[in-house]
Every structure is written in structure tokens, then in C-alpha cells.
Amino acid sequence: MSDRAVSDADRTTTGQEVVRAADPRAQVEAAGKDLQAFEDLMLTLIEQWGLPTEDIIINVREREKLLRNTPDALEGLDNTQRARASYVAKMILAASVGLFDAALNYLWNETINELRARVASFDVAYFFEIAEPDPARRSTLRTPDDLAKIDDAKLMEAANRIKLISDVGYKQLDHIRYMRNNASAAHPNQVALTGLKLAEWLETCIREVITLPRDNVVAEIGRLLSNVRKQRLTETELTNAAAFFDNLPPDQADNLAAGLFGIFNPPDATPDTLDNVRKLWPELWPYVGEEQRNECGIKLARFRANGDTDRAQRARDLLDLVDGTAYLPETDREAELTQAIEELTNAHEGWNNFYEEPPVAKRLLNLVGKYGQVPAGIGPTYVRQLIYVFLTNGNGIAWSADPIYKELIGKFDTSQARIALRVFADSKIASRLQHELPRTKWAELLDLITPKLTGRRDRTLLDAIRAFNGTPDQLKLDSGIKQQLNLGGPRRRSKKPAGRP
Q: CB–CB of 433/391 below 8 Å?
């Protein structure tokens, strides 16, 4: 029975009831013989035309597994969400004829479309400030249509950072992205997919993107940024905003700082918007972490490097407003080093990474010099991104770049080694450690930094990591290891930069 034969009464029920009324499980079993006959006919024709027929389509049994589990995966979607899920429909049709690799590609397209829609309904300007730190590239990103210029990896990472998707969701979606890149029709491959796995991924994409409830803090940030742009805030609104800052998680305070910084800099910012930011900025500053504070100075240097004097002056105005001159750029080398780190990450995530990484890695080695001197402001970012590329993308080792990465890691001082020991807690690194080759490189990393870890707490944590029985992507979930990560206590609120005069 086709959906055209569904009764008018059935059409008035919810989407879930329509699916149940149609009873697709029974339909699949009933249509099995016709489907097999159709495939036999098509494979015969393909063979007659001299084309290959081996390993072209997935067997009927695997397709039945997917189709039997599809109604359960779709249960979370309401009628409106179902009506716009055209790529899910294409996924199911592709899978029904045995083209699982194409089905996975359609599923990923649906996921990315929905994630972009989720960002567009929130605040694209704020999102772009988080997703693209380079002011030159950031200046080309303005409207929801420009979301297509952000690659999938950056889109997911920034959405996770501002909590439009959860940490668990990010990890699961990154795995699906990896499989899409290595097991779908997007690229040549010989990977066999299963019906149950496809059904599981469909449910994950629905649960973690399409139907994920928005976090209350994220919603409040979105409303605040919208109001900052639209109208002059009243004293009551400013007081309420200051009270809201007191309850912000540290990472969200950093994100909001990046958003306000971005709102303040464009040449078309209105006087009301500028005044709103000037009043909010000193209230937020005590909650902003060291890395984000230094990021303000780094952006100032890059504005200058790009000849954008107006934006540079506004960035300086914000730092002066909070007595933040200690966060002005130390030298132009810091800006160049930041750019090199970003270029290395972009090269690593590009299609020709084995060829693009080595020259950028060599430039990075020249910038840090003989003694590996890295400005403190970008030290954590430098360590994380270097380890990110050192762990590989899971497909293979960039042999010409790998010795450079080892040399750079070998130049870590004790402080940088301490950061490296704890990078498994970063969602992006943890997601990478799901795969076999990065796990091997993780063991190499521990060997490289072990001589540099002299503190008792660091050695204790190192021993716990080495003794851990699970895979390294699960390290941050272990209660004992989480306790050791938190021994340093919460970040101190202070209007003076920590460790500076």
C-alpha cells in the first residue's frame, strides 16, 4: 500500500501515527520479492552494458534492518520537521535500493542544513565571531547565506562551543562526519555500511541537531546580543545583564566577550550599539578568561597588520576601558604565529593536507625559534592545535610534517607540557582520539612530554592516564581523572590579569 492509499482519516493524525498506520515493517517484508526481482533485472542490464556488478549495492537483508528501524528513529520529529526533511527522504530511498554510501551522504547533508538553520535562527554575527577568528576572513561573513562558507568541521566546532550542540552530540556527529568523509559516496572508498548503523546515525542526527532543546543560557545570550544591536539598553536592562554575567559558565563568558568585541568593531555599528557595549564590557571583563583576554590583543594586532586602523582603534578603546593594556600585543610575531597556527589547522583539515602541512609547519618552527618561545597569550591554543595536527586526521601520517611536529613538541617547556597532558579533556581532541591512528600518536605524545613533567600533580595525573584501561577518548569521563583535573580550583575572578603586575 503506497502513501497515496492512506485514508483521509490517517492524514489528519500526527506524523508518528501516519508512520505507524502505514506499518512500513510489513510493507518491507511484502515488497521484498518485488525488490529482489527489480534488482536482478537492473544488475543483468548493467552487466550486459559491460559495467561492474560486484559490491555495487547492499544486500536486501541489511536494507530491511534499516527500514524496520527507521520509524523509531523518526519518532522525535514533528510534522513540520518531517515536511522539510527532504534529504532524509532521499537517504531512505537511496538505502532502499542498496546505495548505503549515497544514503550516508544525504543524511549528512540533512544534518548540516539543519545545523545551519539552527545557527541562522540564533545569531549569525555572534556565531561568525566564534567560528572565524581571522578578521580578514571574518569580514566576508555577514548573512545566513555565508554559513555555507564555513566548512563542516568548523561549523560543528563553533556550534559546540556556543552550546547549540552538546559535547556528547559533537563527539557523535564528528564520528559521523568522519564516516561520511571515508565511507560515503562523497569520496571513493571500499567501506561496507550496515543497516543498523545507518539507522543509529539517523537517530543521532535527529536527536543531537534537529530536535535538541536550546540551552537557557544560550537563549539568554542570543536575546542580549540582539538587544544590544537593536536599541539603547535601559539602566534596568544593563543591571539585569550584569547579574546574568555572574551566573555564566566560564566558556560562555569568553564566548559572549568575543561576541561583544565583534559587535563593537564594524564601521556600521550605531552609536546606541557602541554605547551598549561600552557599558556592558567592564561588567563582563572580570569573568573573561586569560586566553580570551589575550585574544582581544591579538585581534588588535591583526587589524593593524591588515591596515584596518579604525577597527584597531576600537579594539584598543575596549582594552583601555578595562585597564587592559597588559593584553596589548607583545610583538608582531605573536600575530604572525597565530596566523601560522590557523593556516596549519586549515591545511590539516583540507583535502591535500599531506602536501599542504609541511611548509606551514616549517614556518611555524621558524617562528617559535631555537628555544620554542611562544607568547603566553597564545600558549594554550598553540599547544592544542599542534597536538591536534600531530594526532593526524585518522587516515595517515603527513610524513614530511611529522618530524617537525615532534621537534616542536620537544621544545615544550614545563607549562606547555602540563597543557599537553590535559588536552584529552578538549572535545575536539577527544573526538579525534576515537580512532586508532590518533590513539597511537597519543601514546607517542605522552612519551615526548614525560621528561618535562616535574610537578607531583602532573606525574600523578600522567600515571593515572597510563593506567587507564579504556580508550583515551574516554579519559575525561573517569571520575578519578576528572577530580585530578579540577585540583587547581575554579578560575579566580579578578579585574587584574593573573600573574601580571
A: yes
